[in-house]
Write a structure and sequence with these properties.
The chain is an alpha/beta fold. It has 2 domains: 155 residues, Alpha/beta knot; 59 residues, no CATH class. The chain is built from 10 helices and 7 strands. Strands 3-2-1-6-4-7-5 form a 7-stranded parallel sheet. It is globular. The chain starts with 6 loop residues before the first strand and ends in a 16-residue tail after the last helix.
């Protein structure tokens, strides 16, 4: 049986306490206990009224000032969005659930949902390793937050039997992935690749690439070692001397 305690549901700047309660109820219905909330310091009374039979989820909710801090200890982060963003690869909920089967069973996973009206910002969705959308009728702009959380968790919990893991190594934690990206950008800067006119663009693209790769420690070490070598420059080599022919 899948250990759902390794999953975290992260609500970013939710407007409605009722929706928080409904999300918690969906978590209780499907067996996911870890609720994290970004941008709030406490829950208002309406959250308790809609969190029917989900008191343990509500009581255990943790609060974070930023999304980056909320996902720092996780290995793989999924971001939900209803908007098509051409600069980011976007897959369906079903496809994202299949992607999760690639990772070892102990991998810690975050499921991120944005504000009811505005969703996740470009910077926030950029922190996700996998970006997904929940298919819907075209005339309806988005699902209610509580419904979106429940549909996602139901797909993970009951959608299909998990397949054997493809990847054997754990990904780095999200904080370690972000740090690897920063170190890589510093190397690019040292090589003269970045300048004032392209710095913001390259910073965003490097972060995007590194998070989509969901780096393992081995991945990180190989990539950074290659670029450290590039910074050192080519080694000096002694010219080869031709062997004297025998009996010359």
């Amino acid at each position: 049986m899948t250990d759902f305690s390794r999953f975290a549901v992260i609500l970013v700047r939710p407007d409605s306490p009722e929706n928080i309660g409904l999300a918690a109820r969906g978590m209780a219905n499907t067996g996911f206990p870890d609720l994290r909330i970004v941008g709030l310091e406490k829950l208002e009374a309406p959250a308790w009224r809609t969190a029917i039979h989900a008191e343990s989820v509500i009581e255990g909710a943790r609060f974070f000032p930023s999304l980056e801090e909320a996902v720092a200890d996780l290995h793989v982060v999924l971001g939900s969005t209803a908007r098509v963003r051409h600069e980011f690869p976007l897959i369906t909920l079903a496809a994202s659930v299949r992607r999760l089967d690639e990772y070892p069973a102990e991998t810690r996973i975050g499921l991120v949902f944005g504000n009811e009206r505005t969703g996740l910002t470009q910077e926030e969705i950029g922190l996700a390793n996998i970006r997904f959308h929940i298919p819907q009728a075209a005339r309806q702009p988005s699902y209610n937050l509580g419904v979106a959380v429940t549909l996602t968790l139901h797909a993970i919990a009951f959608g299909s039997d998990p397949a054997p893991a493809v990847r054997k190594d754990f990904p780095l934690t999200h904080a370690e992935q972000a740090e690897a990206g920063r170190r890589f950008r510093d190397m690019l800067d040292s090589l003269g690749f970045m300048h004032e006119t392209n710095r913001a663009f390259i910073t965003e693209k490097v972060q995007d690439i590194f998070f989509r790769m969901t780096l393992t420690a081995k991945d990180r070490d190989i990539i950074l070692a290659m670029f450290r070598k590039a910074l050192e420059g080519p080694r000096e080599t002694r010219p080869r001397t031709r062997r004297k022919e025998e009996n010359s």
